[in-house]
Amino acid sequence: MGGIWQLIKAKPSKGYILLDRTRKVEFNHMYFVSAHIHPSEGGGFYFAPEADPGDGKLEICVASHSSKLRLIPMLIRSRLPRFVKRKGVRVYECREARIHMDRPAPIHTDGEICRFQSDLEIQCIEKKIRVIV
Questions:
Q1: Distance between CA 45 and CA 78 in Å, rounded?
Q2: Whose CA is closest to 61, among 19, 9, 1?
Q3: Residue 60: per-residue pLDDT
């Protein structure tokens, strides 16, 4: 429910992501950005179902759409572990990303909220942390 409430309060922002310092992708109505090394976050939301914690890559999920009402069903469907195409949502793969938004917006990294940010740089350093599951 927290994600839906956060989406209701969010205002769209123009912005861009720079992937691996080479590919720039611009957006006109970004609502949120999340970066992942794991397929799910925040109690089972699958924003990056293809993410692999061992491949040294990030999955960057961008929710960008002109209507919040169309993004709410996306949040509900993201509870499914299989990949379902979601209108208004794009997922990009990279080793590092620079995120810029014209106004501060919620940025999530593997389920952890990094507060509201307008600029963020993130990278995945392969095999730096060992996790025993």
A1: 5
A2: 19
A3: 92
